[in-house]
Amino acid sequence: MLLVAGAVTLGPAGPAAAQGAGLAVDPSAPTPTAPFAGPPPQGAAPDGSTVGGAALATRDLVTVPGAPPLPEGIDARGWLVADAGTGQVLGARDPHGRYYPASTLKTLTLLTLAPVLDRGQVVEGTTEDEAMEGSRVGLVRGGRYPVDLLFRALVMQSGNDAANALARTAGGVPATLAAMNRTAAELGAFDTVAGTPSGLDVAGQSSSPYDLALIMRRLVEDPYARDVLQTRVADIPGVPGRALGYQIQNQDTLLADYPGTLGGKTGFTDAARHTFVAAVERDGRRLVVSLMQAERRPVHELEQAERLLDWGFATPAAAGGVGRLVDPAEAARLTAPPPSPTPTRAAPSAVAAAPTPPPVTAPQVATRSVESPLVPVGLAVGALAVVTATLVGRHRARRRPVPAPGGAVRRPPTGAGDPR
């Protein structure tokens, strides 16, 4: 299956924010440096409904009847487990909370650019690539890097420099962000606003456990993207007289530790905390898991993902779902704006369900349902504002050293972004 075929052709820079639910990068706001003190904003479809079904409007836990007890040690503020084949959501917590995504946003970068860039094209590194904040794979000015290698560096070691080089090759950061947001909207990922191609923090940038699952579901359907996600090691070439070549390794330890893993992506910033999304296939059944705003104590976020996957595989396939991952055709039916309120309108009621959704099983646990407070205000937010936000909104964080050949440790300059 093609990656959102026909949906990602890069054209002139257009609105880079905006899924039709009033979401936008805000260049006037301070760069986020910590998670939301309380629940983050909650997303909705442009027509005001909850994408995937009304039961997913909850801020709390919701699971399908017949599921085993949830595992202990899950501290992620938002998470979701779904059957990627049927689209049935097996369980979730705050699935449409709009959290900071950190480098899990790079899954959207890959989904958007893989179909439109020539993988054999050689890209020359620039001083701007060298100066990118946060996690980098070590691109240098004058270095020559095939697009295929840049995709692998983007995913394996969360290279912000690779993200910048790919965006430049695709026509520039504004055009890339516009295409990323179009891709998200066409998938039904209406909680997602891309403000940087790397996931570096900028005010207003967001995604949700539901949206990350949608994106990963589409990625692993494509053989090339799946191959990129499953790459264990890759060689970064050096530049004669400037830098030596070295090897990078994939940060997704599930590839080695959890049988059936198709791919995953880590993320971390001080504002996002730890984020992760992955897809796994066993005995013909494919699950996707996403976690947002998790911590590593007492349980590492990748271990949390493994426990949730174990729980998902233990849930009978016939149990149904508390909601569903929409497909692009269904997402297209959710784009009509809600009717304007009248002076005599009744008090708010429960969140409206998506138009003519397939039947889903009543939730086993749903302590409360919250109506989305977001009201759509339009789609036109200029990409130039996003670039401004990107330039002023980057946040510094830690980065792991990159191992060099022979087991030595190569320590590139530190900066902000995903240290894993």
What does this entry look like structurally?
The chain has one domain (54-325, 352-410): DD-peptidase/beta-lactamase superfamily (Beta-lactamase, 3-Layer(aba) Sandwich), CATH 3.40.710.10. The protein is 23% helix and 15% strand. It has helices at residues 106-113, 127-130, 147-156, 160-169, 173-187, 209-219, 223-229, 254-257, 301-314, 328-332, 383-392; strands at 61-63, 78-83, 88-93, 122-124, 144-146, 233-236, 246-249, 261-269, 273-282, 285-294, 323-324, 402-403, 409-410. Strand 12 (402-403) and strand 13 form a beta hairpin. It is globular and about 65 Å long.
Poorly predicted sequence stretches spanning 5 or more consecutive residues:
4-9, 12-21, 344-362, 365-417
Strand fraction equals 15-25%
Radius of gyration from CA coordinates: 20 Å
The tally of beta strands, per DSSP, is: 13
- Dominant shape: globular
- Which percent bin holds the helix content? 10-25%
Briefly note the structural class of the backbone.
Answer: alpha+beta
CA-CA gap between termini = 30 Å
| Total domain modules | 1
**Biggest sheet, open or closed, and with what strands and sense?**
7 strands, antiparallel
Summarize the SSE layout with pairings.
Blueprint lengths: L60 E3 L14 E6 L4 E6 L12 H8 L8 E3 L2 H4 L13 E3 H10 L3 H10 L3 H15 L21 H11 L3 H7 L3 E4 L9 E4 L4 H4 L3 E9 L3 E10 L2 E10 L6 H14 L8 E2 L3 H5 L50 H10 L9 E2 L5 E2 L10
Antiparallel strand pairs: 1-3, 2-3, 2-10, 3-11, 4-5, 6-7, 8-9, 9-10, 12-13
Helix pairs in contact: 1-5, 1-6, 3-4, 5-11
